[in-house]
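Task 17 of the worksheet. Students: predict the tertiary structure of the chain below and write it out as structure tokens. Keep your answer in the requested format; marks are given for formatting as well as content.
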Amino acid sequence: MSHVVRDALAVAVQIGQPALLWGAPGEGKSRAVEQIAEQLGRACEVVVGSVREAADFAGLPVRVGDSVSFAPPRWAQRCLDRPDTVVFLDELTTAAPQVQAAMLRVVLEREVGDLRLPEQVAFVAAANPPELSAGGDDLAPPLANRFCHLEWQATTADWVTGMLSGWEPVEVPVVPASWTADAVRWRALLAGFISARPSALRDVPTDVVAQGRAWPSPRSWDHAHRAAAAAEAAGAGKEVRHVLVAGLVGAGPAIEFLRFADTADLPDPEALLTDPGTLPTQVRVDLLLASLASVVTAVAGRLTEDRWLAAWDVLAVACDAGRADLAAVAATTLVDLREPGWPAPSSAAAFAPVLRAAALV
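Model answer:
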């Protein structure tokens, strides 16, 4: 098993990104999840989908007076005692369609019956490819698009080492509590990339098998930028970052986005707010879009009137350089951030036709 995939799984668990391990039977998926949970100091609750009913996720209907409540199963109740529990949904693809649908609500809404699971609960699932599963089926697209898909296979070298010296768990990267600060930069990078490559935002496969794996959607891209930020903050390395992003949006889109991110040298948004004249305007379209997006993201993260007005000054520099069409993308977001009573900045006048056309003024 590649240590890269193991590290990627550990990062996903720590940020609450649902992960799905694909691998043949006997590859040690279950044991690895339990080990990672133990290393992170978390409890692990194993729920085998193929032997469960929909009520084990949707709740068992119980009549209470004149109404009906849905009682959660014991595994969900135990998560209240350990809010940091890793819920391991094993044999996902061999679950009946109605059970998969009930699982979808758990993963998406964190609700089991009438019980809402704590926000710290992490979800990991494991599945054998349909051709290797008794009664297996392809994963439904809505459920597949919520997971980070990781290919799990024990390497010969790791297996031989484990047989000779024991199966001691390898140290996993720890995501610091400050990782969300890195997400600001990655959000701006993603905004710039998608603005320049709008066709990359969504691509639902037509093939049934591919629909059950990773593919780009607005939701999976949002998850991808968070995973990349967490991996970077944890010092997990570029390989781990690639595995996470590819597991969410697919290999092709991941290569394009990460290549863009690695070559982009974005200016510090706080420096631009202080001195708007330092905005590099004669750069590639995608880089300018990302730079402007980083400014808007920084202002949204700490919104004050002065910072909001300063952001308009940054956009005005781009407009004066003849790139008003690009700055207009950020301008529409700034309009949405305006608080009641804030004055209309004079630098926003250049965008009036665009904003009026969008019915924003």
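Marker's comment: The chain has a mean pLDDT of 85. The first strand starts at residue 19 and ends at 22.
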